[in-house]
Amino acid sequence: GMQPCLQALLSLYKLFCPELVTITLPGKTKTYFKNSEGPWKAAINAIRQRNQGGSPLTQAVFLGTSQPLSRKRKWNSQLVIPASSTSNLEDCRGRNSDLYSVNETLPVEQLRTFPQLLQNIHRLEFPSQMGSVLTNPLLLHYMNCVKDESIHLRLYYWMGQMLQEECTWCVVDNTDEKAFKSFLENIYNAECFLQEGFAACEEFLYKTLPLWDGSCCRSEILKLVTWIPLSSFSEIKPYLYDPLAQLFFTSSLYFKCSVLESLKELLQNWLNCNVMHLDPELNS
């Protein structure tokens, strides 16, 4: 029967292969399939606007956002640990001296050594700006030791927003490639320190690799690829291998070698991660 979903499928066939559909379809059909060329068309329009210097419109291509993102909030390139939220701590101590003698919090900017971290890890107050975590080994140690889901969620949300707003090939008026490279390098160094990839970074790669030209921030992007978490080939193929394959077969020999080196390191990281979870009784 002429169900709406079947009509939508037939109309899609008639659009691309009209000789296959001989019946007459109604003019108005509910849209069941999104246009797969949408992101590409948006990316091409963004490049045209940037090259022609025409409309100053900011257009975010990925993450399915139609509204331009606010670029007022810039990440701190120095990533200095800010003052914690205990600005009124001294006043509180006077009124609650007995309470703070037991549960006094320690602002993270006072940390200097690893033994100091171990002694105060139970009363540490995390910074209000998550960007300072990326370049601070003591705070990365803290993330490894304390399995606090709220910290990981805060870092995931902050990193996802920053990657979306600072991506130089997805936002029209963002041409500061040097700053974005520095940001990606800091993320990669933090992943190497933790020996695991960030979920926000993985999501960013999957959504932007189909729009990537293989040139912008090449070294940093391929480094981030090496820390994609372990998953099945069927899950990772359409998001990682297919976009890279399109660039691989049309790029220089240097780019091909860079991709192969990146995938080799990805395999090594997967093996190292898998070995830690193997049953010690297994011989294979």
Explain this structure to me?
This protein is mostly helical. The protein is built from twelve helices and two strands; from the N terminus they run ααααβαβααααααα. It has a two-stranded parallel sheet. Strand 1, helix 5 (114-120) and strand 2 form a beta-alpha-beta unit. It starts with a helix and ends in an 8-residue tail after the last helix.
List the helices and strands and how they pair.
Layout: H1 4-16, H2 38-52, H3 89-95, H4 97-103, E1 106-107, H5 114-120, E2 124-125, H6 137-145, H7 149-166, H8 177-194, H9 199-208, H10 218-225, H11 233-248, H12 253-276
Parallel strand pairs: 1-2
Helix pairs in contact: 3-4, 7-9, 8-10, 10-12
Structure summarized in a few sentences:
The protein has 284 residues and is mostly helical. The protein has helices at 4-16, 38-52, 89-95, 97-103, 114-120, 137-145, 149-166, 177-194, 199-208, 218-225, 233-248, 253-276; strands spanning 106-107, 124-125. The protein has 12 helices and 2 strands, in the order H-H-H-H-E-H-E-H-H-H-H-H-H-H.
The overall average pLDDT, rounded, is: 76
Contiguous helical run count: 12
* Fraction in beta strands: under 5%
Rg, nearest Å: 25 Å
Structural class: mainly alpha
- Give the low-pLDDT segments: 54-78, 81-93, 95-102
Note the main sheet.
2 strands, parallel
Range of helix content:
40-55%
Strand adjacency order, main sheet: 1-2
Order of helices and strands: HHHHEHEHHHHHHH
Strand segment tally: 2
- Beginning-to-end CA distance, first to last residue: 55 Å
Global outline: elongated
